[in-house]
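Input (structure):
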């Protein structure tokens, strides 16, 4: 499944390949607002900054999600 959502980057783990995002509810996935860690490519991690408000594209497999794109808001 894929979705687009908005949130704020709250942490970046470059070594672990993760971005933590405090996101708004994601209706298409039936997810409430929460803070979650998502896998992300090194290129996306390089452009991410803690505190940035973003819109992001997400692909979910099972209970794991991966950020595929980030756009500043």
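Output (sequence):
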């Amino acid at each position: 499944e894929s979705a687009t959502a908005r949130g704020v980057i709250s942490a970046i783990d470059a070594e672990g390949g993760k971005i933590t995002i405090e996101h708004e509810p994601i209706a298409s996935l039936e997810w409430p607002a929460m803070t979650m860690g998502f896998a992300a490519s090194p290129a996306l991690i390089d452009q991410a900054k803690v505190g940035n408000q973003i819109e992001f594209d997400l692909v979910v497999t099972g209970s794991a999600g991966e950020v595929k794109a980030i756009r500043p808001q």
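Notes: The beta strands are 2-13, 18-23, 34-40, 53-61, 64-72. Helices lie at 42-47.
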